[in-house]
Amino acid sequence: MSPVESREQHPDEEALAALVLAADARGVPDDEDAPAAVREHVASCPACTAEVEALRETAQMLGRMAPDEVDSPLTEPPARVWAAVEAETRPAGTVHTARRASPPRPGSGPGGGPGPSRRPWLLAAAAVVAGVLVGVAGDRLFAGSGEPGPTATSTPTSTGTTSSSTAGPSVLARIPLTQVDGQDTLGDAVLLRDGDVTELRVDTSAPPGAPPGGGYREVWLLNVDGKRMVAVGVLAGRTETFAVPDGLLERGYRVVDVSSEPADGNPAHSGDSIMRGTLPA
Amino acid sequence: MSRREWTDAPVAEVAAAVADGDHDALAEAYRRWAGLVHTVCLRALGDGHDAEEVTQQVFVSAWQGRANLRPSDTALPAWLLGIARHRVADRLALRGRDARTVRAVAAVTPGERRPAAPTPEEVTTRVLLGEELRALREPRRTIVRLAFFEDRTHEQIARDLDLPVGTVKSHVRRGLLHLRARLREVSDEPR
Q1: Around Cβ B97, how many Cβ atoms within 10 Å?
Q2: End-to-end CA distance of chain B
Q3: Which tens digit of pLDDT belongs to each residue from B42-55?
Q4: What are the chain B neighbours of A229 within 8 Å (beta carbons)?
């Protein structure tokens, strides 16, 4: 009800509130709180009756609440909930607000430039060591195509060997994860196929990625187009295995990125990448 | 994806961007309202794991159904909460009401003035009221608490806080009006 439109006819909202409170008060409601004129009007006015009822409902709801319901703040969900939302709402072909200039975050990763969420991260490609396809049992070659990857070879990397084709997941690819602003190999990422499920196992050999003060490390798959990314999950320890949703890799989300995230409840990429590697197509 | 793009954006702008398919806007909507959605789920379902799952479902559903979102000033949180209520109701129906009634009662309060287990609608309203109460400035915040939670009369409050009775009455009334208005904003009701 708007007090502006019909000040002559309807009582103002405070008078209606007074009516509600006078009815609930422990003290004796006097004519000042609930004047007869107001009560009579409300009784014959549907709009005002509805408003009074709504206010009374709210007052009763308040009366039913326990003090600790008032005192306890909201419970924010843990980071993995957003990671799951993002994985399920893969931003393929969606609009980005390119109209807004993206200011660089302080201390962001490669070369001190803008964060990696926009195309600038492609500029850091020089620092990314392209993945080397590990020789695998022939019948398990990932993406099953005759198309060779950009650097497909059949030599094993220095970090591992091929997996057998017997029980257990088979290794489709293994790539080193290279320090984003340096040359060191800080870990590796292995793409596994276990039946119908594709998994990504990230293994970091160097703990120094873990940020201080309650932050955490998060794994992303960046699209090779330099514009999009998907959060894969939180890297709780040195090693973690994540399920990779179908179709993601085929659509270009092949750059494995591990970032340092502050514990600020913001699910977006902090811009602070620690290490990266690109899976072969 | 810098947070700075969105922090001060009005709700209508975030809503319009989500409807357009801007995934960063979804992240901002999550940043703003996931706590609210999650808390409602937690209190309605009484289980952390379920609350997390339903929260995830709410935002995924919101994204998938973004074409239905009307980008008004209040539509986005109201819409998210509406989805949340439905998802919570679905989850409760799945589990079986009896078991949940027991847990919902236990989760909310040890007994005093509560007649029955709260519905998802009531849980949502109470979480919202709690947030709005915490956001009130003094002295209205204390006055409203004394009036509604401690059943003090206006005269008693006036004595306790050394304020004129008229001032106390005004704060209680305006506080109730304000709370009611805020509820109406996120309930998507026409009235």
Answers
A1: 11
A2: 38
A3: 999 988 999 999 99
A4: 1
Global pTM value: 0.54
Question: Do A21 and B112 make contact, defined as CB atoms within 8 angstroms?
Answer: no
Q: How high is the pLDDT of residue B30?
A: 95
Look at residue A241 in the predicted model and tell me its pLDDT: 87
With cut-offs at 50, 70 and 90, classify the pLDDT of residue A6.
very low
Query: What residues in A contact B153, CB-CB < 8 Å?
Result: 25-27
Q: Would an 8 Å CB–CB cutoff place A188 in contact with chain B?
A: no
Please state, in angstroms and as integers, the Cα–Cα distance from residue B153 to each residue in A176, B132, B143, B144, following that order.
71, 22, 10, 11
Cβ–Cβ gap A14/B177 under 8 Å:
yes
Q: Which residue has the higher pLDDT, B187 or A248?
A: A248
Residues 6+ apart with CB under 8 A from A89: B23, B26, B59, B60, B63, B64
Distance of alpha carbon B60 from the chain centroid: 19
Q: Does A73 lie at the interface with B, CB-CB under 8 angstroms? A: yes
Q: Does A198 touch chain B (CB under 8 A)?
A: no
Residues of B in contact with A265 (CB under 8 A): 31, 35
Helix/strand/coil for B4: helix
Give chain A's end-to-end CA distance (angstroms, integer): 62
State the smallest CA–CA distance between residue A241 and chain B in angstroms.
Answer: 20
Distance between CA atoms of A279 and A243, rounded to whole angstroms?
A: 15
Q: Does A280 touch chain B (CB under 8 A)?
A: no
- How far apart are the C-alpha atoms of A122 and A226, rounded to whole Å? 6
A103 pLDDT band, cuts 50/70/90, is: very low
Taking an 8 Å cut-off on Cβ atoms, the answer to whether A61 and B184 are in contact is no
Distance CA A216, CA A204 (A): 14
Biggest CA pair distance of chain A: 93
Amino acid identity for residue A128 in this structure? V
Contacts of A164 (CB under 8 A, 6+ apart): A137, A170
Angle of helix B75-95 versus helix B48-64 axis, rounded to 10 = 130
Give the nearest partner residue to B42 out of A68, A75, A103, using CB atoms: A75
Amino acid at site B156:
Q
Q: Sorting pLDDT into bands at 50, 70 and 90, what band is A163?
A: very low
Are B78 and B189 spatial neighbours (Cβ–Cβ below 8 Å)?
A: no
Query: Of A80, A227, A269, nearest to B1 (Cα)?
Result: A269
Contact A201, A188 (CB under 8 A): no
B179 and A62 within 8 Å at the Cβ level: the answer is: yes
Cα–chain-centroid distance for residue A253? 16
Q: Tell me the two tokens of residue B103.
A: 């847990």
Residue B28: Cβ within 10 Å count: 25
